[in-house]
């Protein structure tokens, strides 16, 4: 009796040739791998993706590389050789998607630009991810997460009111490529079902961060002024932010009028529910210091656990401030299986963060561990490109693959 094949995800059968490195591009191809696509990660001979050398490193494997390359297959190819270039073109001919995050112009110089690949495979969706996009005066400028945060307006509004701007703790300037890239790719795959042809997708990380400004941008349009830094508070909603506790601090978020009455009852000040000094969003915003002082007077004498119990009882939006380790091991994360164990080729069993998109009517298997450098070179050449063992041995001897 044969075993039932596991459901790999809605993108099972979709093949991706992945020329990405570091973070923005790998985050995009990671999302596709999580959804079931077969991702062939092209890595150069020697060190491979630069992040393989980023410390801390354990037994030769970098924490950074492991974080964004689960479920992919690594093939080492020398793109500077004519034979290596021919190999990846043959592979692109058999793929549905190409993702790259080099600076604009690099793929063209390699002979792997959109027009060259389109001539080989007109059905292929080609996604380019770069700091500033394929057009504009900054297209050739190098970009890093903190630079993108600065250029997009994100950095200026993040931090305490009277302090210096502070970058976001997570590298959202890069990770936005892992959001917008897959959105563009998936929509192009859907369109291809009707048209039969692929597209070139131009993802700018700065565009992506600007798109996330949301109501902050609209506030600037309305007022004609830059929104000011308010730390962990909200520019228009009060109370909203971090409040002191006897043994730490806690987040309280009052978004609507109904939540204000819940806050008042939870802090034993029910008379404030109808106090005309605070009965609208605008009045509470204008009396920010007074309102925050009232809430702080209650929270500062109680422990975080006590406050969690009180705010839970009164259905006030709140949260203890968890460190990363505690966040990953909290009951909700455990219930959602957000950390799973994968079998790594050299490290053995390792914990990895699980997929963040789930499907209720089917369950995907645990993601495969990130590959060691060149782990799938032989299998990709043999199973996808139908090369003989003799030919693979010749390519290895010539240094074309490894």
Q: What are the key terms here?
A:
single chain; 402 residues; alpha/beta; Rossmann fold; formyl-coa transferase, domain 3; 2 domains; 6-stranded parallel sheet; 18 helices
Q: What features would you describe in this structure?
A:
- This protein is an alpha/beta fold and about 400 residues long.
- The protein folds into two domains: about 15-210 and about 370-395, Crotonobetainyl-coa:carnitine coa-transferase, domain 1 (Rossmann fold, 3-Layer(aba) Sandwich), CATH 3.40.50; about 240-320, formyl-coa transferase, domain 3 (2-Layer Sandwich), CATH 3.30.1540.10.
- About 40% of the residues lie in helices and about 15% in strands.
- It contains 18 helices and 13 strands.
- It has helices at about 25-35, 65, 80-95, 105-110, 115-120, 145-150, 170-175, 175-195, 205-210, 215-225, 255-265, 280-285, 290-300, 305-315, 325-330, 330-335, 375-385, 390-395, and strands spanning about 15-20, 40-45, 55-60, 60, 70-75, 95-100, 125-130, 200-205, 240-245, 250-255, 320, 340-345, 350-355.
- Helix 1 crosses helix 8.
- The radius of gyration is 25 Å and the shape is elongated.
- The two termini are about 40 Å apart.
The stretches of 5 or more residues where confidence is low (pLDDT under 50) are none
| Average predicted confidence as pLDDT | 95
Q: Choose one word for the global shape.
A: elongated
Strand-residue fraction? 15-25%
What is the annotated CATH architecture of the largest domain?
3-Layer(aba) Sandwich
Summarize the structure.
InterPro entries: CoA-transferase_III_domain (IPR050483), CoA-Trfase_fam_III (IPR003673), CoA-Trfase_III_dom3_sf (IPR044855), CoA-Trfase_III_dom_1_sf (IPR023606). Helices cover 38% and strands 15% of the residues.
